[in-house]
């Protein structure tokens, strides 16, 4: 008999319902979607979706770091990799921008996402726009990897999550890990929530909601939902 303090089964069922609903609605909108129970399975799935010989690029994503996709691609040694965001951060802005532009012409574009709505929409906010640009157009195939913590009810909840969780934490991440000292003065870094500021270093500038793909683009965007909490 399970004790009342143990909610493992309830949490598993709750996640299962949300994931199944989300995947069904993503597919209804022309987006390929599948489930991986853990990050190891997700890594195997993503690798299986990347043929030998193609060029692979990545967006800035904590989730991608966590599943270890770039080190595994390097070990496999079958693809050219464009990585504007290596572990050793590129301080030269122009060099990073050059790689970001090259990434938009890659065969495969790897990225995370800020939020996925249960009715099948991908919601993202960018500071520079390169991540959302790659999702929308350019690369022949897009692979989005997201933990179950990214699933939300609808667009309103997605935007609240992004502005009050993703953006403040990401700004703090860049301040602490990448020496972006200018970010320390952002209102969201000081308060922990969005004030819809007009700060010159604001990282919420480009809002993109992917509501589906056209028939000719079916199969281009692929979402792997992982049964663990990943990313920001």
Structure commentary:
This protein has 232 residues and is of the alpha/beta class. It has a single domain (8-226), classed as NagB/RpiA/CoA transferase-like (Rossmann fold, 3-Layer(aba) Sandwich). The protein is built from eight helices and ten strands. The chain has helices spanning 8-28, 39-48, 62-67, 69-76, 93-103, 130-136, 155-178, 187-191; strands at 32-36, 55-58, 80-82, 108-111, 115-117, 122-126, 141-147, 151-152, 206-210, 221-226. Strands 1-10-7-4-2-3 form a six-stranded parallel sheet, sandwiched between helices. A four-stranded mixed sheet has the order 8-5-6-9, sandwiched between helices. The radius of gyration is 18 Å and the shape is globular.
CATH architecture descriptor text: 3-Layer(aba) Sandwich
CATH superfamily: NagB/RpiA/CoA transferase-like
Radius of gyration, CA atoms, in whole angstroms: 18 Å
Question: Can you give the mean pLDDT?
Answer: 95
Contiguous uncertain segments of 5+ residues: none
Taken together, the total number of domains comes to: 1
Structural class based on helices, strands and sheet pairing: alpha/beta
N-C termini distance: 36 Å
> What's the story with the biggest beta sheet?
6 strands, parallel
DSSP strand count:
10
Helix content: 25-40%
Q: Could you name the CATH class?
A: Alpha Beta
Order of helices and strands: HEHEHHEHEEEHEEHHEE
Number of alpha- plus pi-helical segments: 8
Proportion in β-strands: 15-25%
Shape summary? globular
Order the strands across the largest sheet as they lie in space: 1-10-7-4-2-3
- The CATH topology name reads Rossmann fold
């Amino acid at each position: 008999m399970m004790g009342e303090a143990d909610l493992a089964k309830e949490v598993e069922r709750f996640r299962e319902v949300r994931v199944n609903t989300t995947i069904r609605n993503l597919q209804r909108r022309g987006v390929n979607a599948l489930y991986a129970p853990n990050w190891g399975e997700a890594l195997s799935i993503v690798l299986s979706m990347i043929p030998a010989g193609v060029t692979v690029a990545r967006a800035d994503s904590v989730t991608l770091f966590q599943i270890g996709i770039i080190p595994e691609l390097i070990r496999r040694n079958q693809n050219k990799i464009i990585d504007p965001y290596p572990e050793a951060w590129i301080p030269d802005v122009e060099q990073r921008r050059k790689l970001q532009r090259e990434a938009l012409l890659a065969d495969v574009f790897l990225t995370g996402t800020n939020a996925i709505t249960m009715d099948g929409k991908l919601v993202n906010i960018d500071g520079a726009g390169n991540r959302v640009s790659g999702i929308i157009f350019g690369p022949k195939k897009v692979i989005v990897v997201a933990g179950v913590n990214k699933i939300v009810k609808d667009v309103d909840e997605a935007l609240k999550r992004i502005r009050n969780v993703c953006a403040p934490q990401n700004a703090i991440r860049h301040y602490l890990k990448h020496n972006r000292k200018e970010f320390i003065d952002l209102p969201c870094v000081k308060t922990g929530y969005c004030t819809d500021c007009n700060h010159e270093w604001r990282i919420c500038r480009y809002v993109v909601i992917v509501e589906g793909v056209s028939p000719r683009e079916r199969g281009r965007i692929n979402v792997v939902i992982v049964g663990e909490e990943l990313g920001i």
